[in-house]
Amino acid sequence: MSFLKSSTSFTRFRVLDDVKPEIYDSIEDVLRKYAMIDIDDTADERGYGWTNFDDMLDLDFATSSPRKSEFIVFAFRVDTRRVAPAIIKKHVTIALRQDEAKMAELGKKYISKDRKKEIIEQVKLRLRARTLPIPAVFEVIWDYSHKTIYFASVQRKVIDMFTEYFVRSFDVHIEQVLPYSLAQNILGSGCEDKLDELEPTTFNID
Predict the structure, then answer these.
(1) What is the mean pLDDT of residues 41-66?
(2) Of 27, 53, 69, 174, which residue is least crowded by CB atoms under 10 Å?
(3) Tens digits of per-residue pLDDT, 147-158?
(4) CA–CA dist 116, 113 (Å, integer)
């Protein structure tokens, strides 16, 4: 999903802490420090971090500045290696049979439970090393002056990863804005009882 498209889905966050002005002034340094670490030459299952809004390969933020007027714009890139379960099953079976043959030569009949776990992990590691990671980019727009963040994803797992990494990077806490909390913010204090009494309405279209 992208904010540059005609329509997109996104999650809104509220910044709970007061952000130090120097964060805005040195935003490139913070983003570089916590930038995406490429996992192409590793066997890691997942890698993630910040990258340029305009170029997902620009981890130095040289293509363009993340400061756009009162906004800070960048992206959260997640690279994931996925090996199909059927492929894992096939190669685990091959590895187990090979190990069973070696055990038989030594006069042993069974492979221990710990050895089976070790073989499975070795197979997964070997297959991941042969598989290129799939990149996914989720754009971030931080309305600095209004303490609001727009994140171009509604996937629960990605949202949790983004939230944890944002707090770690900027040392500020954020809270997802849900419809209930948004209504509280618009209507002001003392509206909770009225909101709790609301019931859904079904509209019939003939």
Answers:
(1) 93
(2) 69
(3) 999 999 999 999
(4) 5
Cα–Cα distance measured from residue 199 to residue 202, given in angstroms and rounded to the nearest whole number: 10
Q: How far apart are CA 124 and CA 128, in angstroms?
A: 6
Token pair recorded at residue 43? 């066997």
| CB of 80 closer than 8 Å to CB of 136 | yes
Q: Phi and psi of 126, rounded to 5°?
A: -65, -40
Contact call for residues 74 and 36 (beta carbons, < 8 A): no
Rounded to 10 deg, the angle between the 113-129 and 85-105 helix axes is 130
Q: What is the signed CA dihedral for 102, 104, 110, 111, rounded to 10 degrees?
A: 0
In which element (H, E) is residue 80 found?
strand 71-80
**Hey, what's the torsion of the CAs at 119, 120, 123, 128, to 10 degrees?**
-150
pTM of the model: 0.78
Q: What is the pLDDT of residue 195?
A: 67
The 10s digit of each residue's pLDDT in 92-108 is 888 888 888 888 877 77
Look at the alpha carbons of 11, 26, 69, 38 in this order and tell me if their dihedral is positive or negative.
Answer: negative
CA–CA dist 48, 79 (Å, integer):
6
Residue 97 structure tokens: 């049979």
Question: Would you give the DSSP letter of residue 107?
Answer: T
Q: 199: pLDDT confidence band, cut at 50, 70 and 90?
A: confident
